[in-house]
Amino acid sequence: MTTPSQQLPPQPPKTVRKVIVEVVDARDLLPKDGQGSSSPYVIADFDGQKKRTSTKYRDLNPVWNEALEFTVSDTDNMDVEELEIEVFNDKKFGNGSGRKNHFLGRVKLYGSQFAKRGEEGLVYFPLEKKSVFSWIRGEIGLRIYYYDEIVEDQPPPEEPAPQPQQQPPQTEDAKPTPGLVVVEEGRVFEVPSAHMEYPIPHGINGYSHGHGAVPGYPSPHVMVVEESQPDVVHVHDELPPPAEPTPMPVQPRMAPGLPVPEEHFAGPEVRKMQSSRGERVRVLKRPNGDYSPREIGGNKSQGENAAAAGVGGAERIHPYDLVEPMQYLFVKIVKARRLAPNEAPYVKIRTSNHYLKSNPMMYRPGEPTDSPEWREVFAIGHNKQESANATLEISVWDSPTENFLGGVCFDLSDVPVREPPDSPLAPQWYRLESGAVDQNSGSVSGDIQLAVWIGTQNDDAFPEARSSDAPSVAHSRSKVYQSPKLWYLRLTIIEAQDLQIAPNLPPLTVPEIRVKAQLGFQSVRSRRGNMNNHSMSVHWNEDLIFVAGEPLEDSLILLVEDRTNKDVFLLGHVMIPLISIEQRIDERRVASKWLGLEGGGGGGGGSGPYCGRIHLRLCLEGGYHVLDEAAHVCSDFRPTAKQLWKPAIGILELGILGARGLLPMKTKGGGKGSTDAYCVAKYGKKWVRTRTVTDSFDPRWNEQYTWQVYDPCTVLTVGVFDNWRMFADVSEDKPDSRIGKIRIRISMLESNKVYTNSYPLLILTRMGLKKMGEIELAVRFACPSLLPDTCSAYGQPLLPRMHYLRPLGVAQQEALRGAATKMVAQWLARSEPPLGQEVVKYMLDADSHTWSMRKSKANWFRIVAVLAWAVGLAKWLDNIRRWKNPVTTVLVHVLYLVLVWYPDLVMPTGFLYVVLIGVWYYRFRPRIPAGMDIRLSQAETVDPDEIDEEFDTIPSSKPPEIIRARYDRLRILAGRVQTVLGDFATQGERVQALVSWRDPRATKLFIGVCLAITLILYVVPPKMVAVALGFYYLRHPMFRDPMPPASLNFFRRLPSLSDRLM
């Protein structure tokens, strides 16, 4: 057998790849045997092979040091194969009460995360939950690598080459000292202690220096930390045993815990390996996998949640009960006083896992330089177990010279814990201490005012804090936005008088006078005015409607134009501030007024000659709802005027847990794929934006938001985007990339029930349907179930009253919706951080009205599905009348006789059938809120040319031959629609022809038959007639003529108006 390090022959022989999973140990496992401990064992599943370790009896920190070997069946697809490590408690060693092996946690990895033999390292992975409601803690240490084994004629030995690499079992005392621990986005690496560097001795107050080393001292773990998520990063902070004493040079002492200036030392090369929840790239095994939402946690009602929290509700429920609480260490830096001379001081914050810096304080001219103010809050990922013996170091430095100005240190075990609604912790003054870095202790002086506490993402300071799992730029912070208050502005142009119309018009030429109205980017032109020859006034009596947004700072500009000739001549203009326009909330009549025109003849200014006057009626309509979303996915139907709002009927709670398996959206240094994802949710006027989690394909947000619900028949929209603006310069505007969105209809949620589900993020590109990942959400609609307020909402009109008293046209409302969408996008783009216009328009479905062959097909199949029940009923009746099942047909005869003989039972029986159908379909009710349906959207079967047409711009940017082909295809489709519409019109005209005497003989026959039926119904009892007609319809096929009946033949022969078409 040869090893991979040997030279391969020109023709490489067949090789077999082996994967070795060394299960080293686990820490801080959860006791689940009923006796305060656990007897853990590990099961590894990879490529269809399962291996198991031994059981460690009653040990919460077990040490296995066992190697599990797996054979890779397909080396080309090893990167997409999933390795699942699960830890269980062995019930055989419990108290005998357990009926199953309790789950202690799991870790999921992919083959792309494995290292080659010789490049592996010991990695501690945090144990993950199976669901949100699982209680798991601890971490497991694994060493995973692979190698290729050459297959020879002779069978390979039982133990492959990794035996020399396997570490023998070691006790705590015999454990070698690791040389370096690197933590990066939830990844922990240990390397051998060769060429070690040693720390500076402890200070006089007992806390040691946290950065930098000098040769000659045995070193504890050196932490090199990048920003990481607090819920996924678990740092190995166990200190190694002291090494043997070594001769060391005399070093000057330093004050406790104060870092020296940053120095870089040459260390051993560290190989990086991705962890299960840090920066894992989830590769989809099935490109056309399941696109349906799935449950990731038990969907429980409020009572079940209370029962799960503890018996009788004795255990406190976290305020963020829909998401996982994330512990953060908050540091609020306020200001300093009596500092040493400096130019631009800044603050360094260092823990064992993280390192953050504040912005430098820039002084104004003449401002004292000894009292800087920062007023910044930092949120650092905190783990209680790992930070038991850790310290927090806060030091002040001068930015240009990197001079040390002093620092303080805190023991994290003494930091207080704050949970809302506790009041904010008051900042305190702390004396700055000097250290060995500053030889002249007199240069360090002054105090710093700060506050340190431990909290969660529910803390009031979290939204504005600089988080350790997100960059410090403003574009990455979580924010809540409010849409602007929008009004409909109704302008009624009545007439204009004394206009300076050109007198030299040709004979019999009527002047074409129009009014052009402008409000911001909106511009509308009236129709041609009617000229009154007696009074020389022009009449319009036309309504123009605009969208106006608060604050009402703009002005409405009216231009009266003479468009008789080719050149437009301005007759006058008037400017009306919106703040001066009257507001109304009902249909009361608003007084009209005359306004003088200015600046006629192409000139401007208010000092010009008199140019006439115009009669107007203006009002701001508060009784309408200004639509900025498509009506079928609208999240709010309240009118603009707040006094018309009805009380809320419930509360909508949304927990944005995170995303899984996102695809790379950009490339960074070295061509590495990266995604910086954030989530946006919109309901009503309130928009929320989560913080941006950088460089992660599995971001965890765990943020919870609430909305008031006024109408249950509304839709919540949640979208995921990739942040590009955080990397853009101030001068350039890089739009954020869309990853996908979902919609949840509130009426589909049961009252007071938590839905915790994972939804696929789908997006339609020019190349077709693409799954971008999955988003995990927890939703609850808290409202009284089936009480008058909730039930009465279903009987109320969907839109406010003014939409029915003075309705708007369909085309007009669509144009106003486009203007409202643009105004909302412009408003939110002025926020800080801005919500990009591409984000707002994508969330509001601004392009939902554009033409698409795919959407047309989808709507056609929706109509077919709606009519499917009628087609099914017709087929069932046809089978009954054809006696396909004689027993069923006889039963239908009996039922028909009963209903005819007792007609008062027809209505109750019909409604009883509806009730029974509803009860029957209760078994098939949707268990979870549905997401996007790719089959309903016709996204799977879309033609490439059709989807290319859907993404085409207006006007089209395609070559003429492609446009001609698409136009011809559209003409063929329109011809089919034209034929169907003509057939509908023909049937209606034939019905009219029965009595219109267009065919005299047919009308005489119809009238005669109607007279005969009238006489028969007067003589024969109606029950007998109904029985005879029913039995005739259900007669046996042997008595049935295969040709069409005479009545149908008669109807088809009636004339229509189609023969008159040219």
* Major beta-sheet overview: 6 strands, antiparallel
Tally of separate helices: 14
Portion of residues in helices?
10-25%
**Assembly status:** single chain
Count of DSSP strands:
44
| Overall 3D form | globular
Rounded Rg: 39 Å
Task: Tell me the strand percentage band.
Answer: 25-35%
Cα end-to-end separation: 90 Å
Could you tell me the mean pLDDT? 78
Alpha-beta classification: alpha+beta
Taking pLDDT < 50 over at least 5 consecutive residues as the criterion, the unreliable ranges are 1-9, 156-289, 306-318, 602-606
Write a short abstract of this structure.
With 1062 residues, this protein is of the alpha+beta class. Mean pLDDT is 78; it is low at 1-9, 156-289, 306-318 and 602-606.
